[in-house]
Amino acid sequence: MRASPLLCAPGLVRRSFDEFKRFAKIVIKQEGLTVPRAPYELLDLTNPSTLETCKTMSDADIGGFSKANLDYVPQSPTEPAHARFHGSISTELPANRPHIQRTGYAAWRNRDRPATIFGKSLWDIDPYTYLGLRVKSDGRKYFVNVQTETIVPTDIHQHRLYARRPGEWETVFIKWNDFVRTNHGVVVEPQMEMLRQKVRTIGIGLIDRVPGPFELAVGRIWATNSSEGGQITDGIGDRPSKENGPRATARIET
Fold this sequence. Notes:
This protein is mainly beta and 254 residues long. The chain contains three helices and 15 strands. Strands 1, 3, 4, 6, 9, 13, 14 and 15 form an eight-stranded antiparallel beta sheet that branches. A seven-stranded antiparallel beta sheet has the order 2-5-12-7-8-10-11, with no helix packed on it. The radius of gyration is 19 Å and the shape is globular. 29% of the residues are buried.
């Protein structure tokens, strides 16, 4: 019996071995029985190869005029290495497309991760309380988007990305339980708990529909059980609704 070329592919073998090591680590440390203390890296955007696994989206995909870019910025004397999400928002509607009634958004996320011999590559963040993000914001209304392996593939769990100090690096912690289920930007009822054992993608979007340039720097995204101090913002005024999107509760540190 001869193994197929797919199973012999070096990338598949490497990914499968990495996944096996992760499973073995969980068993050895009994992380299924105790609360994990170490953070779980999801996206390390200080590594340029991570950006190759990400994609941008905007209303340009349906004929709009917003622009979205995700570029790698190497470390400098004044800045750490990071990904720069930037572009411009336009609410202009495309001509000769009367079915397009709304534009003015831009976003990015990781692509679906390649499979291993164990099946689809999905993040299991169930043992963790918080999502951590290291960001430098321009103060605009960004949302964190999480996709899971659900029955409705267009469902996205969203949470407002609050930044207390625009123009400065800060760490934001968001409780996984505070994400709100949406579909095509509209809050879905009834709400269902996020399928935290099967997270497909994580990304950030800008949906404030304010025309003009935007820029958000992102260093790392990880799951953790430690909020590591910081400040809490309760998101008053951002109650889930069809008008203003998900409410946010986050802990922030500089």
